[in-house]
Input
Amino acid sequence: MNSAPRERQPSVMPLAQIPYQPTRIPPDDALGILRADRIHAERRRSVRRFSEDPVPRTLIEEAIRLAGTAPSGAHREPWFFCAISDPDMKRRIREAAEREEREFYDRRATPDWLEALEPLGTDFVKTHLTDAPWLLVVFRRDAQSGPNGSRLKSYYAQESVGIAVGFLIHALHRAGLATLTHTPAPMTFLREICGRPIEDKPFVLMPIGYPHPDATVPDLRRKSLDQVASFE
Ligand code: IYR
Output
């Protein structure tokens, strides 16, 4: 006897569909927009020496809002941003990060890795963590609370947060602000300092501010289009 397939009772109703009709930009205009944006983006550099000049909190708020427009798996928005300007918290973060980085440079890093870092001239001293007016700690949320005490898991959380951080870096640069994607490993101390739950994994630690007037950056080149793309 054939039993009818059991009806799956959806626990959540599908979202209503609303029209999406952005104005279409003619290709010639679009090319101008993309080119101008790319030329500006090419001037962006990771900065390791920051001015102590203040940056208004409103700029950081807007940049975080913009990052939060990134697409995410099942629209779970699996990110959390802890923005820190408190000097004492910055000092604690620097102390903990330098402890980990000293271990990295003295013991943990493989010879290959140290060789790859050699041209950048980095070491365990992280003055940017106390000089920059803001430290932004980005967390990847692997689960979060939903309605009626439910737990919502994240999907493609790593990819989603990576995209959001990309949006953030681009937006900060457009606003004339510099940052550094800094990932001291391990970064678990950041969860404790920011008071985040165990499901939140530190993803990146970003100092944000204006570059120090005497800042320098390595004279590196970017790959050309044909080195990074093929058109079939
Ligand atoms: N986290 C260390 C090492 C480091 C690793 C990579 I990959 C870099 O591109 C730069 C540095 C540090 O911040 O010094």
The pocket of 3-iodo-tyrosine is lined by residues 101, 104, 117, 120, 122, 182-184 (CB under 6 Å). The first helix runs from residue 27 to 41. Residues 27 and 33 are 10 Å apart (CA to CA).
